Protein 1
Amino acid sequence: MHITEDPSGAFTATNVPPGTIQINATSTSKSGDLTVRVGKADQSGLVLALQPAETKLISGTVVDESNTPIAGAWIGADADSTFAGDDGTFELRASGPTDIHATLGANDHYPMRDVVMHLDVDRDIHGLVVKIPTTRGEIRGHVLGVDGKPAGDTWVSAASPPVLTAADGSFTIPSLRKGTYDVRADTARGDATATVHDVATGTSIEILMQAAPTLHGRVTLAGAPVPHYDLRCQGSSYYERRIDAADGTFALEHVSQSGERPLVCRAATEQAEGQATVVFAGGSAQVVIELTPFATVTGTVLDVFAKQPIRDAQVMLSGRPLGALFSNEHFVAEDGRFEIDHAPSEDLRILIRTKRAYATVPAHPIAGRTLDVGTILMLPTPHDPADLQIYVTDKLAVRWIGSDRNPGLHVDDTIVAIDGIPTSSMPGERWTSLFMGNAERGHTYALTLARGVTINITAE
């Protein structure tokens, strides 16, 4: 189920399963619930009335580790927040299980990250002492350029939003938790960078910029240079190039290194692809990419009932771009066949999608070879979609029946065949689509149950 709302207060819930549901809405001071019985027809005009929430008063003082009140500290409950007064005192309102957050104030870098305590607020609470567990510090310093001169307008960061150096290269990173940090500086042009490790709060440092290295790389296939290929490198920065070089080499100037995210380069031709992680050492950056030939994946998509091609089916690789640079969408041919000719040789999932249904199939093609995943059965796309008014699990167990026109069918019945086709012929999650508004209007379906009887139900 998916719910959307707009500023006017109107809401829409889609893909709602049959049964009884409860919709809850809350604001900072009001809340409300609405119980809805979901049946065959769409429902509109529902009204969810919000009532004033029964909140309780929480009052107290925000202090530091030495129990000194903190003026202007920010404190918040789940649905209310405030700033402490000059004497550190505060008042806010909450109800039920509540997380209490607190930080130094509005200028703190991460004003929502400190959960100080958890309360079960069932009454007014007075005299609460909220202690911020770790006081903050700052790191100061100067940045010198590659030429040894003060570097103004340089970005400096330490696990925090970056700050710009002044014209004399000075900087201050405020409101840091006490501890040690890696402090990084980068020029706005990206042509120089430097990192100072294990810097303690309360200290002053000097950062000497180093020219950002040029990445030198080489792309090969079976050990031989690849003269033409497309290149993409992504880490903390992104680079994309078309390379034409007889010896297969390339160079990218001013590449940046990140301790949090490695720089990975991927190269691809029409026949092969490969990737490798860039190695930074001694002011240089190197990478060698060996390409692996693409594999080909083929198969056939058929209607589970008539065993005829489903011509509106679209096939793609799930969770992975096709190769590095190729289209990820293929429609089946008139005979239901499909071919993906730029598939990487790794564990994949083939996604088959029609206008009203989808399926996934695992595959592990081998480089340079063709893998046929066989016949993939799916529900046909209905010309006039209708609802059977039955809700089933992916094991085809009946969980809800929405009409008395289904005589003989009971909750907890298990469907073992539909129109004579065993439900074991394809995964249960594909069958469930039939019971979610994808039946053919006017068609009578014969549902064979595990208890040995067959029930005929017409989609209306």
Protein 2
Amino acid sequence: MYIGDFILEETIYFKFTTRRFTTGVPFALASGVLSCYEDNSTTQITAGITLTADFDSVAGLNHVTIVAAAADGYEAGKQYDVVITTGTVDSVSVVGEVVGRFSLGAVSTYTRLGAPAGASVSADIAAVKVDTAAILVDTGTTLDGRIPAALVSGRIDASVGAMAANVITAAATAVDFSTEVNTAPLAILGTPAGASMSADIAAAKTVVDAVKAKTDNLPSDPADASVVAGLIAAAEAKIDIIDTNVDSVLADTGTDGVVVATGSKTGYAIGAGGIAASAFAAGAIDAASLAADAGTELGTALLDLANGIETGIPLRKALRAVLASLAGKLSGAATTTVTIRDASDSKDVIIATVDADGNRTAITLDLT
């Protein structure tokens, strides 16, 4: 008869019945002695065992009390057989009868749960439930709608919707809190070049003020210096062409450049010498002297001169890039792709790929 699994130092109670062999009717056990055998050991343990025959004056009913103490040789994780080692029933020996079997901490449930703090594990759980209910009353909360359906990496993942004023105090923060707060902006802004970030900003402001003083005198839409230089070079080239053409005209017409009286100019052929520069008074050739289409043609020629600025980039396209960079909308400055729109915000003119330091690594232009 298996009695059950108990823990070391626990007191075990059980009963068994002895019967007369001839009739099978319950009969008293005489001079009975019980011993425990541990697992397959031949050593009898008799300490801590109390046998009460004819318990409660009931014939043949035997009551057993075993105090499973380590001091008496009992061990956790072992099994024990309770055997009659002395005694008779109706003068017939019953030595060797096994009347019970039990174990001490052999079942994993006891090993994992341990001994209950109260009368039983159920009693302990009930006590916890009472405490939990008290917490809900004290905090004015119900947890049904607040506990998430699943844990995230073994923990509750929650967000704080609002915090009372001054709830985060110096004592509430970790040791490295202030270091992280102070370091995070520096990681983004970088180490100041001067004594501090404020000193760098002040130095930059001084430079910007100096630049502004210069640019205040510029027209509202100034061209880049390199663009101006390109225009001058292109103009000089055109002047050279004009000079060559004028020389050809003088040679073809046989003119010598002699200035004649006003009344004699009709049908006059200019000699091979052409018109000397000294013949033109200061400011003689003004805007009124040029036909409208002459200025337009010269301007168009300059703007669309092939390779006027760089190979494949005439002045008109270069000016579009300059205007976009100075007056166009810019987006993506905090990313690795910076986009600059044209001044009328109709299309992307410059798309630049940059690294973490803002250095350009690739440029895509749409100058059409």
